[in-house]
Amino acid sequence: MRTKIKEILSHPSVESIIGHKISVCGWARTVRDQKSFAFVELNDGSTLANLQIIIDSQQSNYSKLMQEITTGAALSVDGIVVASPGKNQKVELKAESIHVYGLCDAATYPLQKKRHSFEFLRTIAHLRPRTNTQGAVLRVRNAMAMATHQFFQGRGFLYVQTPIITGSDCEGAGAMFRVTTLDMQKGHKDFSEDFFAKPTYLTVSGQLEGEAMACALSDIYTFGPTFRAEKSNTYRHLAEFWQIEPEMAFADLRSNMECAESYIRHCTKYALEQCKEDLEFFDQFIEKGLIQRLEGVANTSFAHLTYTKAIEILLKAPKTFEFPVSWGCDLQSEHERYLAEEYCKQPVILTDYPAKIKSFYMRANEDGNTVAAMDVIVPKIGEIIGGSQREERYDVLEKKINDLGLKIDDYWWYLDLRKYGTVPHAGFGLGFERLLLFITGMENVRDVIPFPRVTGSGDF
């Protein structure tokens, strides 16, 4: 039975496994032929560290093996765990038999042992998971997915799946990918003849459908891919990304804020506990002080500010912003980061935004100018969560839809939720890749998703 390298190197009592026979598989990271013996650093992706393999030249096929085992080659090794005289590892594996599954052409293999830029690695996204950085990113990504399910399941939320193909524009922004079987180049635009007999798109959010399920099951969450056809080339935008969207029935904005803060703190603590080795790598090579930053978030309650108060603070800030600030403007990343990093020096939740810059489904406040919206702002990233109490009043919601020029027929079923047993309810959305930027210290969302989809590039 194959043993994961992580199980060997993180064994609670390494000394107790010395002398054991084990079998491991992986890819050669480095090969050093010392003539009388050779060292191979083997990695199977389960951990950042490599397992050192010792190959004795007395093996009958030693010369052939040394020709076949190059950086990138895939192999299995059966051997005995022995104590390591080196200072960087406690054990190594003395090979008894080796099988090379896949050769690797050393002359053309693009991942030789040297530093590569993240821009270059995006051009070989099929191979970049073999690098230390991408391996660490993907292990943290896995951990954050586990933390997400653990958090919501622990609170009694039901995990539900919402459609990828939809006929409604949840955000009202119009930046959507159309789904059609019609030959648009030949002018076929009669959507009654299309597959779904109406215009349909890839979803930008599962929120509306999530509300339908919350209005029957009380507390639900979604975790799946969403799509936005924005032609943005910033470090924070992708055309395809993963989103987590909880919805809570019988809940108001305060309940929503508590859930959002608890979720971020839970994920942060989980990463600190479960991803120690990878976070130490990020702290050393990606963002100095990362672990200290995360510990601060995990152990500190978030600050609260209204949007109006935030504008007052920004107008008095002792610095010049690229984008001018005024009441009614949509806050930019530079504004958000100033509030979290310099003014509050901690995560902050902003509430009660102007209605004109927020989506139609957000509950109108009594002042007539603002809505019960909230954004969670964290250091380094800016906005990481956006949410609101939803508008549960039929007449108010119907008027909003009409005023924004949306097609009322597209939302008939959404309005029905306000006609049949309506309740106060709230929820939020979190872009999973932004959470990963926050946890890892990486700078670009294209480097925290296996195969980035952005404008002008849909490779792999």
Structure description:
This protein is of the alpha+beta class. The chain has helices spanning 5-9, 62-68, 118-122, 132-154, 207-217, 253-274, 276-285, 290-298, 307-315, 333-343, 394-403, 412-419, 432-440; strands spanning 21-33, 37-43, 51-56, 74-83, 91-102, 158-159, 165-166, 178-179, 200-202, 219-227, 240-249, 303-306, 348-354, 370-378, 382-389, 425-431. Helix content is 30%, strand content 24%. The strands form three sheets. An eight-stranded mixed beta sheet has the order 6-10-11-16-15-14-13-12, with helices on both faces. Strands 1-2-3-5-4 form a five-stranded mixed barrel. A three-stranded antiparallel beta sheet has the order 7-9-8, with no helix packed on it. A hairpin with a 7-residue loop joins strand 4 (74-83) and strand 5.
